Amino acid sequence: MSREIQIYNTLTRQKEVFNPIVENHVGMYVCGPTVYGDPHLGHARPAITFDIVFRYLKHSGYKVRYVRNITDAGHLENDADEGEDKIAKKARLEQLEPMEIVQFYTISYHKAMKDLNCLPPSIEPTVTGHIIEQIEMVKQILKNGFAYEVNGTVYLDVNKYNEKYPYGTLSGRNLEDTLEGTRTLDGQSEKKSPVDFAIWIKANPEHIMRWPSPWGEGFPGWHIECSAMSKKYLGETFDIHGGGMDLVFPHHEAEIAQSNASNGCNPANYWMHNNMITVDGKKMGKSLGNFINLEEFFNGSHEKLERAYAPMTIRFFILQAHYRSTVDFGNEALQAAEKGFTKLMNAMERLGDISASDTSTYNVNALQEKCYTAINDDFNTPILIAHLFDGVRIINSVKDGKESLNASDLEQLKTIFNTFVTDILGFISHKESSGNDLTNEVMELVLQLRGNAKKSKDFDTADLIRDELDKVGVQIKDGREGSSWEVKTRRKMI
The pTM is what? Predict the structure, then answer.
């Protein structure tokens, strides 16, 4: 590749030049959602973060196999070896089959990802579709002497594992510190050590989701799922493993232990983690009462929202911060993101109307290099967006006659914006994201009717059409060459 990509590797705690295992091919695994509730802002951030990685690696000429799982079984309430399966609990509360819960929320998640213009992964495996692979991995770990079985539950023996492989390499925790920070939980006295974790769990009589295994009927531990599925589709060692920072410990640490214990090697060479989204400085969570799902953002129905925000506003809001930085939610921040996004997309539209001059007063090559330098530096989207706004200033200056671009530079500037704004950052106009060809046709008809009213000097009707459209978030702009429209925002339904 002509340009080096640097990735911050959580495992080594430094930026490293990206070198794939197989030339021009990339294997990437990202932990997906546990589908028992509505998709929320916390789901949006890793999806958008790794969508950028996926898009840019493909742009750079790599053939990428992007695997993102759906956890539809085995994830216990507190991410430990106790409590009830999250999906089974939801099913019991709703008096539905667990797979009804899974189906409903998987569809909901996919719709939200499409609204946010996240590309679908290459493969999207489910836990329930890979029970055999998980059982086989558990059997291998047992065979290698790094696990033990008690009453139908199989635990990874962390102390035994630590004798051969250092435990805590990803999180920076050593075993002694981890032991000091643990406590004995009810029902877990059967463990040799409180740090041991279940890789196969015996199902209680009331547990709905269960499968036969050599150790009796049960279900997989949460951590074993990703280890088995990543191995199946990407091999024992692959290039990039991604997810939220909250997964570093215990989930990803456990994945490393399971892969070493079964395969004798680390599962991934580069570990990438996006930071959290906070609300008023606090982590977003249902228990804190600050939980906002994506549909509430899109329709403005949550009490913390002053109005609705379009999916592209959410995408811009997330990408204007580096993926390793926290993002604090607030209406002011979202409204600022909305303005910034609108300004960027309006400039792209104006770019198509610019005529070339004989000479250029602006160095387009320099802008292109700055954009590539930003994205190659650990996918630094806020710096990239800042450079694109330098381009916005040039577009506006050329449009106003203060700067000029020759034909070659003008085409290059168009290529830069199409490449970075659309292909890599994945931004589409509100007009595109909020409707289809039929919407466009209807709006053209409305503009025509308004134009006829103005020609007939029926200004009351013309103003009424404009004002009513404004109420539903559609702004009419009158210019010398006629009227145009754009979606400002999706307003809260009253």
Answer: 0.86
